[in-house]
Amino acid sequence: MNTVGYLGPKSSFTEQAVKRVFIHNKRIAFESIFDCLDAVKNEEVDFGVVPLENTIEGSVTITLDYLIHEQSLPIVAEIIVPIQQHLMIHPNNESNEIKSIYSHPHALAQCRKFLYNHYPSVDQIQSLSTSGAAQFVANNPEIPIAAIANELAAEEYHLTVVDQNIHDYEINHTRFIVVCKKGREQELSISKEVSTKTTLIVTLPSDQAGALHQVLSAFAWRKINLSKIESRPMKTGLGRYLFIIDLEGTIESILITSAIHELEALGCGVVCLGSYPIIQK
């Protein structure tokens, strides 16, 4: 039976994503995204599940930069999970006594307006995960602190939810990706008919005017839909960027394959991070 690592501790949003695909697999929680991805790289687990993007706060750059610069782990699936953020405290405390609020930086940012309007003078302290923040509050009942996390975390750590759905925008989803070691992509089987996506890393030829326009044109005239394009620094000097491009469809498509060949003919570097199913329940 395959083992699955995820950003923990228990009852994190990432564990919710894991349960949608890996129902009967052994699950191992890791303290940070780096720890989880390193466990995949070192074959301590067969698959890893980490957050990649949120509808409110955008990309999780820690995940992106690891896959780009640290270790190229193929993406074998994407899981989309609706996110509901709640404010919770230890039952021993009162909400009007809160001195600090703990959560993952993305969760704090998702609730920026709520925190400004209701807790403007309360310190916001970043945690490695929302469930980790909930666990910290549970373990420190003598301190008047709160956490932003999901309902499962409140149940797991016996906390009291004092405000529900505090994220600033009603539509709040997070994309989680499933990664594995190269050569093991076929070990994950998704039986349901789902849509597919291909993610490419594209580097442009240096000092060539209009290079990005040519890249986009290679997809446009073939009518390949781009669901996302994002720049990230190459970390080799100011002004040097690469592009992460999400395409609708599979790498096996003749149109996508020919577009990649055209980009390479233009002098671009192209790396495929994965061609994978999208799971949204």
TrEMBL record:
Q: What are its E.C. numbers?
A: 4.2.1.51
ACT domain ranges (all copies): 200-277
Q: Which domain of life is it from?
A: Bacteria
Q: Which organism is it from?
A: Bacillus suaedaesalsae
Q: What name does UniProt use for this protein?
A: Prephenate dehydratase
Please name the pathway: Amino-acid biosynthesis; L-phenylalanine biosynthesis; phenylpyruvate from prephenate: step 1/1
Catalyzed reactions per annotation: prephenate + H(+) = 3-phenylpyruvate + CO2 + H2O
Mind listing the UniProt keywords for this protein, alphabetically?
Amino-acid biosynthesis, Aromatic amino acid biosynthesis, Lyase, Phenylalanine biosynthesis
Under Pfam families, the record lists: ACT, PDT
Molecular function as annotated in GO: prephenate dehydratase activity
Query: Domain Prephenate dehydratase: where?
Result: 3-181
Gene3D superfamilies per the UniProt record, alphabetical? 3.30.70.260, Periplasmic binding protein-like II (3.40.190.10)
